[in-house]
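It would be a great kindness if you could assist me with a short task in structural biology. I am sending you one protein, given as its amino acid sequence and as whole-number tokens for its backbone shapes. I would ask you to consider whether the tokens describe a fold that such a sequence might reasonably adopt. The full record is reproduced below for your convenience.
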Amino acid sequence: MKLTKAADYALRVMLFIASSDKDKTFMRSELSEICDIPDSFLGKILQTLAKNGLLDSSKGKKGGFKLSKSPEEITLYDIVTAIDGDVYINECIDKPEVCKRSDICKINNVLAKIKNNFVKELKNYTLKDLLTNK
């Protein structure tokens, strides 16, 4: 299991926006420079976050991006799954029917526990937690 570069960038930009004044709107180019993320790549990430209800986007001279919810309402799980989709470790865990050995496999039980713990931790931490070093 590995978080993609896009998920890493999404976490970075969301944390930055959360650390700013709640009514402040940021242009993509501004976020790109401040967060050190390639502008064209960031555009896709921001649109995906907005499409998934984590950012509000507005067009025009005073347009840009801001959080659509408060930092305590946005979990790391929300951000990661918006960008990368569901947490995935092994096909056998999510679709045991594809594996002939699923009934006797000792590995899948352990991997399923690891996945569940990882998901649980992602859901336990919010942007506010990161801002307050919780």
In short: Residues 99 and 118 are 23 Å apart (CA to CA). The two ends are 24 Å apart (CA to CA). The mean pLDDT is 91. The chain has one domain: 5-131.
